[in-house]
Specification:
5 helices; alpha+beta; 171 residues; 8 strands
Length: 171
């Protein structure tokens, strides 16, 4: 998993080097998400990188009944990760990322619950790795890595140190 997380660090390095305009003009979270996905695509050969993708083949990603995660559709059942790294035609879901712009006042719990569900190995669409990234103008102010339905403190710390080493993390 560290190899995949290193690719995310490389994509973030490129993103921050090339996308300063977005932060200088205070553009929205969806714009940041799309541009980060472009840089991720360069790192993950053989995978598709999509934003707001709610499918696995022809099937719609749906949460189990009774889940507390709110969703973006009127039925409240389908789920739209901000960025996914996957193979569209086969059930090979590698990475789900929730992006937050610094200053987002929406509860963090929504994204945390979404990543718990997206990485839950008991669900048919589980992603191997989930991640929350809070993006500030020059750095990632918060990150959290999820594996098997839970935050992984060791991988989260490892990733945070990699970000710091790349000049992208908090002190």
């Amino acid at each position: 998993m560290q190899a995949e997380l290193d690719k995310v660090v490389a994509a973030l390095r490129e993103f921050y080097a090339q996308e300063t305009f977005l932060f200088e003009h205070d553009l929205g979270e969806r714009t940041l998400t799309h541009r980060l996905a472009v840089h991720l695509e360069r790192q993950f050969a053989g995978f598709n990188v999509d934003c707001d993708y709610d499918r696995l083949g022809a099937r719609t990603l749906r949460l189990p009944r009774g889940t507390i995660v709110s969703t973006d559709d009127h039925l409240g059942k389908s789920i739209y990760p901000d960025i996914v790294v996957h193979q569209r035609d086969v059930p090979n879901n590698l990475l789900a990322i929730e992006v937050r712009k610094a200053g987002n006042h929406q509860p963090l719990e929504h994204d945390q619950q979404k990543l718990r569900a997206l990485t839950d190995p008991h669900l048919w669409f589980a992603y191997w790795i989930g991640m929350i990234l809070t993006l500030e103008k020059n750095r990632v102010s918060r990150s959290e890595v999820y594996v098997a339905g839970y935050p992984d403190p060791e991988l989260s710390l490892w990733f945070s140190r990699r970000l710091k080493g790349a000049g992208l993390g908090t002190g």
